[in-house]
Amino acid sequence: MSAVVVVGSVNADTSLHVARIPGPGETVLALGSRTSPGGKGANQACAVARAGARSVMVGAVGTDAAGTMLVDELGRRGVELDQLLRLPDVESGGATVLVDDDGENCIVVSGGANAALTPAQVTAGLDAVDDVGLVLTQGELSVACVEAAAAWAAAHEVRFVHNLAPYRAATPELLALCDPLVVNEHEAADLAAALGEHPDGTDALLALLAGRCRSVVITLGGDGAAYASPAGSGARASARVEVVDTTGAGDAFVGAAAAALLADDDLGRACAAGVAAGAAAVQHRGAQPEL
Ligand SMILES: Nc1ncnc2c1ncn2[C@@H]1O[C@H](COP(=O)(O)OP(=O)(O)OP(=O)(O)O)[C@@H](O)[C@H]1O
Predict the structure, then answer these.
(1) Which residues are catalytic?
(2) Which of 238, 228, 171 is nearest to 203 (CA)?
(3) Annotated binding-site residue? 222
């Protein structure tokens, strides 16, 4: 059975619920806290599995207790972990997530084992997976690891999907392989600015990025998502739902959309699947639903 292989970060998330997110120099008391599996790669791998597709994780955690928790939790969520390395002498990656009463968040990520992963380990991990149907990456691994995954996908004629989150500079060569590039509105604007352009509005942003990538998706928060590809462009609206916590909404979108693309859905149907998963994600606390 063909797999979505997620080459990405795995973090232990500590989520702190606060009345409001503090400014510089301020201290606030948390109203509650919980530790759960996170990291954009792991969140997306879980979303792929939740969508019913075969999901394989290529990445790294430490040999610490957090690493053991992460392996257990991802396994329980149906993600294949044979290529998730346990690296000695390095801590597992971690993120501290502040979520306020309005569901807004603010996140600090510590790379740990994710930052120690090498491009050669990424390539070896991909080589070891049987029947890779789609390679999915995000911006929390090193640029060199993402480029190694993209190069592997190109060499093996496998679809490459990149979620440029968090935003960072991307080469024209990497962008040209993305099918699609998935970005939110801020990441899209940052990317456009880096290309020396300041297009006004989503349609202009889509047109600009579609010219640099094989296809592009811009997620629009509560408004859903818009897409453009050589086969056509369009938008998928989100259902109006009560927002509890937006953490991981983008990851839920990307994982569900990748699972749909693996099943040969077109980009419009993949966006519809992503929007439905994103709307479900904002209705629970944390990056992933409790099991
Ligand atoms: N308020 C909302 N109501 C319904 N759906 C939402 C809402 N916010 C986000 N979503 C869903 O999640 C998807 C991704 O959201 P968004 O565009 O905010 O990405 P993001 O900034 O990467 O998210 P995050 O960083 O919070 O995980 C949207 O396309 C939509 O489907």
Answers:
(1) 251
(2) 228
(3) yes
Q: Tell me: the pLDDT tens digits for 148-168?
A: 999 999 999 999 999 999 999
Is 224 in contact with 275 (CB distance < 8 Å)?
A: yes
- Ordered DSSP codes for 227-266: EEETTEEEEEPPPP---S--TTHHHHHHHHHHHHHHTT--
CA nearest ligand 1 atom 7, residue: 222
Span 62-74, mean pLDDT?
Answer: 97
- Write down the residue that tokens 């090498």 correspond to: 118
Domains and CATH numbers, the chain: 3-10+38-92+112-281 (3.40.1190.20)
Predicted local confidence at residue 187, as pLDDT:
98
* 32 C-beta neighbours (distance < 10 Å), count: 10
Ligand 1 center–CA 127 separation, angstroms: 33
Indicate the top mutation candidate among 247, 282, 283 to test ligand 1's pocket, ranked by most ligand atoms within 8 A of CB.
282
